[in-house]
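Reading is simple: each integer encodes one residue's backbone shape. An example follows:

___
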Amino acid sequence: MMRHTTPARKRLHADIHRLLGMLMQSEISDPRLIGACITRIEAKPSGHDLIVWFHRMNDDDHAASEQRLNKLAPHLMHRLRQALPRSRLPKIHFRWDDPLDKGDAVLSKLRRLEAENS
């Protein structure tokens, strides 16, 4: 059974999405993570944790990027606590967003077909 997400929780998730995006641009200096962007945020069934889906163009080592971001998660959580006046924030877990890779592959095939038919 799917839990109902309250408007307040949706606003919190939107705030976390926005703030994490800004933090990733301003505070991550690892060149292997530059250009990574958050695609969506989902609550885990427990409601106490969030899955932060991300993607980075031309990233050949998804697992390493995911591991690096999860290693930075405590720092990002600290910065979120400073920015959001809440007594408790959900813990964040970064995951690679695979569907974007599949969509990119389909677009590449369509472009090749178009080029062949021109």
Observations:
- The radius of gyration is 17 Å.
